[in-house]
Design brief:
Two copies of one chain form a homodimer. Chain A is mostly helical. In chain A, about 75% of the residues lie in helices and about 0% in strands. The relative contact order of chain A is 0.10. At the A-B interface, helix 7, helix 8, helix 9, helix 10 and helix 13 of A face helix 7, helix 8, helix 9, helix 10 and helix 13 of B. Chains A, B: It comes from Isoalcanivorax beigongshangi.
Chain lengths: ~230, ~230
């Protein structure tokens, strides 16, 4: 059974993702659910509490999938699984990354949770890269893998806000956002390419074909869309 | 002679960079200059006009340095010069990149100018990479260089806002921001490393030593600072 609390969270997430968190008030959320603002405030004192709970859900999801397989070597399929999970989790909470600076500026406790989340994710991410190295899927010394991981993190978390800032509001759509996010995975693949080995190198073409939109590089894709 | 208009721009830039554009009003700017708000409004109708003019100055500066040397092959010194220029221009207008989404959301004309600027910069950036390739300083086919350039752009323009979002306000300082920006150049070097050839590869250690803060990788540096 879905509780009112869960319905509020789900609807808020949907509205934030569609319209941007700044453009959605608690009244909009109550309206969309057909409940009174008073009922909403019974569950969440303000919008900040809704955002904090959505953030915690997102963070738990990311930390959850950044784990190494137990009692066996990592495979190419595991590596692909991380990509799929990154894409899905970023899509599900895309409002967060589009406007993160704003959200963190408003709420010091959210910033503390975010810092712990980044710290924790990067530690886990490094373990994952070391697991891939042990499995012969990537190559690089620790400093190289840490540099690569940091760049992957900044790219993955900044891409949505970068592309979103370029597309005029009149041209924005869910389908376009989804394509642009997929192209973001292609950009992560560009980052990783020089370090791939074994099966992850052999099957790179296949993975690129899955994520790159219309076989285009990102400059052509982006400016093609904007100039349309 | 410095005009009042120039003094307004210079003081606004300084205040925006120090305190963040959101925390600085036209009254603060007039106060800092010892002029009346009416005098300020005589030169700029609102804060948006000041931001737009500062943006144009920044954009002109970046486009200006993204040019190829005339009548000669590019050298390693040219390549280093691009880095210095990127670092200086980003530092001089750091308020822009810390809160870009917010600024563009507020002003559609600024968004149009920003899109043209990104488009123009990426075209020029590609010419620069092709110049480096012709000079034997980097290696990669066009698709590879375009992927690398896009990642460099996103990293360079997102790094300041990424690190800024992690550091608690009480810990922020100009010296820290400057160090973190320098470490951002180290992250760009990590991106480029696999593609460097000739002198740019031979002298990589020297360049890393110049930008990497305390010889640390960025994860260690960042979380060391935050946990202090």
């Amino acid at each position: 059974m879905t509780t009112t609390r869960q319905r509020i969270l789900r609807t808020s997430l949907d509205l934030f993702n569609r319209h941007g968190e700044r453009n959605v008030s608690t009244n909009h959320i109550a309206d969309a659910l057909g409940i009174s603002p008073g009922n909403l405030y019974y569950h969440f004192r303000n919008k900040g509490e809704i955002i904090a709970e959505l953030f915690d859900g997102y963070a738990a999801q990311v930390i959850g999938f950044l784990t190494l397989p137990e009692d066996r070597t990592m495979t190419w399929a595991d590596k692909t699984g991380y990509f799929e999970s990154i894409l899905d989790s970023m899509w599900a909470a895309r409002f967060l990354h589009r406007d993160l600076g704003h959200l963190l500026n408003q709420d010091d406790r959210l910033r503390d949770r975010y810092v712990s989340f980044v710290d924790h994710s990067l530690q886990r991410g490094f373990d994952v890269y070391c697991g891939m190295r042990a499995a012969g899927l990537v190559e690089g010394d620790d400093a190289t893998l840490r540099g690569l991981l940091m760049n992957t993190w900044v790219l993955a978390t900044s891409w949505a806000s970068f592309v979103h800032s370029l597309v005029p509001p009149a041209r924005q759509s869910e389908a376009l956002d989804r394509d642009l996010l997929s192209q973001g995975v292609y950009q992560i693949l560009c980052l990783e390419t020089p370090y791939l080995r074994g099966e992850s190198l052999e099957r790179l073409g296949e993975v690129i074909a899955r994520y790159q939109v219309d076989g285009q590089d990102s400059m052509s894709l982006l400016f093609g869309l904007i100039r349309q």
